[in-house]
Amino acid sequence: MNQFLDEGYIKFVCNWINKPSPIPVPDSLLFWRDKMHQLGLIGYYPQHKVGYGNISIRTKQGILISGTQTGNSYPIKATDFTLVTAYDIDKNNVTCKGQIKASSETMTHAAIYEADKSINAVIHIHHLELWRKLLHKVPTTNKNIPYGTPEMAKEIKRLVIHDSSLKTEKTIVMEGHVEGIIAFGKNLEEAGNNLLHWFVQ
Asked: What is the CATH number of the domain that holds 9?
């Protein structure tokens, strides 16, 4: 139960520029986010009144990511995304421009992009059964590291850089974030199909 009291809340200092995003949101980003929602992999816990799951792509201008507490939005709208133009993992701060604040998992997405320049899409989902199935079968974060923290970002970055199995698995289980799974790829199609591969097995 305690995990949900902490769920979905931004833990970094957010320099939010509340203006329309300076770049358009690609249809593919809307498509894959809604597909994850349809499968219940991104959504909303009504009993706890918090959303879960997020999705992003790397762009030349920054990281285009779903906003905080958008799990209940369906179909997703372009205004539910924001552009992260700067971040500092060590100082735990994020600058974003859009009509919504960046996802609480922004640091994790940023760490993945920083660790591997070939990765251009990240999807973070929740699914308890799949989480249990993949726990320690694919690269798994330290159970004592909570979500949305600089420590989690650094742990994710460490795995991406040093765990060679991620070159093929492209999936990380967050042991300290029950239900939390991250998939990534060179584009949204690769990241999304990677999750679907695990989900239908």
From this structure: 3.40.225.10
What is this structure's pTM?
0.94
What pLDDT score was predicted for residue 201? 75
Judge contact between 150 and 90, C-beta under 8 A. yes
How many domains are contained in the chain? 1
pLDDT tens-digit readout, 142-182: 999 988 889 999 999 999 999 999 999 999 999 999 999 99
Report whether 124 contacts 44 (CB < 8 A): no
CA–CA separation, 131 vs 133, rounded Å?
5
SS3 readout for 126-145: ECHHHHHHHCCCCCECCCCC
Stretch 27-39: mean pLDDT, rounded?
98
Domain around 176: 2-200
Report which residue type is found at 182.
Answer: I
pLDDT at res. 4? 44
Q: How far apart are CA 69 and CA 135, in angstroms?
A: 26
What is the per-residue pLDDT for 89?
A: 94
